[in-house]
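The following block was generated as part of the benchmark described in Methods. Ligand: s-citryldethia Coenzyme A.
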Amino acid sequence: MKLADNKATMSFSDGSPSLEMPIYQGNVGPDVVDIRKLYGQTGMFTYDPGFMSTAACQSAITYIDGDKGELLYRGYPIEQLATNCDYMETCHLLLHGELPNAQGKKDFSELVTRHTMVNEQMQFFLRGFRRDAHPMAIMTGLVGALSAFYHDSTDITNPQHREIAAIRLIAKMPTLVAMAYKYTVGQPYMYPKNDLSYAGNFLHMMFATPCEEYVVNPVLERALDRIFILHADHEQNASTSTVRLCGSSGTNPFAAIAAGVACLWGPAHGGANEAALNMLGDIQKQGGIEKIGDFIKQVKDKNSGVKLMGFGHRVYKNYDPRAKLMQETCKEVLKEMGLENDPMFKLAMALEKIALEDDYFVSRKLYPNVDFYSGIVQRAIGIPVPLFTAVFALARTVGWIAQLNEMIGDPEYKIGRPRQLFTGSAARDVMPIVKR
Ligand code: SDX
């Protein structure tokens, strides 16, 4: 970051001395006012619940222009990556800053492949869960449990440890997600197969059984790979910020990523894809497209507590570019699966059209986000609804790790420790219980 010529001055109406603060510029996007001296010089904090106007860090990984609906991974537009690259190339890009050449891609992919198995002991963790446990409950446990097995890569201050932990996490997430799924359906776990692609391996571990040969469908394989690319990273979203804050204590990478998994589960964040599909299912049950008007009325009624899941975004005040790409992938997969007339997809398209013509959504700049169509694609591939967010976590793991490693590598980083505006009781004395 570079110091701007411009400076910020904070003055106070009570005549307290004003404060001059430096302004820094990034390469693109908003400048920042450096308020680090504010508390020391004024005894006051800033107040920004939800961090609506706060940059928590500097980063060179992902840039979002919410007004334009633009998303860049290390400078490359998401549309070009989703069209010209695969997820392994995208992982290399996010972790190392550059797309690999052919040899680099081969080496990276082989390194990941060789780490896709998990320790045989991991399977015994699953037995403790009920068969109907939510996959994200299982994943939160399993990812944290990885730190019990890989003591040779838990020192986050050691670059070699960070490198191998990154590969292990990227490699093992598909295996763990597939195990979480198999456990809930009572089928045996399928071991990874080293002759399959990353996405193909996931499909195999999910849908193969020991009883017969499973052939990976190339259209589904490509669609899943694109879904992974679209979900790989997204600047300082809630789960990434959780991973950074958790990792800032110096905890091991597996524990920090487990914290990200737990945060992503929420319906306002990664859980929205599952919630969006359940919402479409409810509308379907109530009568489908004819009932969209009634549903929209509920959404507009603040007292209903009903939101249009898969719509709206803290940063995007335009169409989420990932939603557009997801819609295209949706069409490809539905066609491949002979589901062109899938009522859920038709309902989603009708809902989007109506919402985008309704002033309630237009005035609030609420557009479809990545979660609006991702559930329909995953459902068409055969992935059960409760597993959607686990697939999101699988894909986002590389982004979480890249952001965590960037933070640890930043000489300015400290343990994150926000303050507060205290509105509770001032000091008071405890009375003996007989007098309370
Ligand atoms: C992801 O941050 C990221 O980058 C996340 C993510 C990633 O890749 O990591 O992109 C992934 O989490 C995408 C978002 C998935 N969540 C959903 O689809 C859930 C539904 N969306 C909302 O809950 C909401 O839009 C948020 C949480 C996504 C954003 O909320 P904000 O930025 O805090 O905005 P807000 O809640 O203040 O909304 C502004 C207005 C409010 O109305 P008013 O008070 O102005 O009258 O818009 C309304 C909100 O009530 N609103 C919605 C709405 N989203 C916002 N009304 C109906 N349906 C919605 N979906």
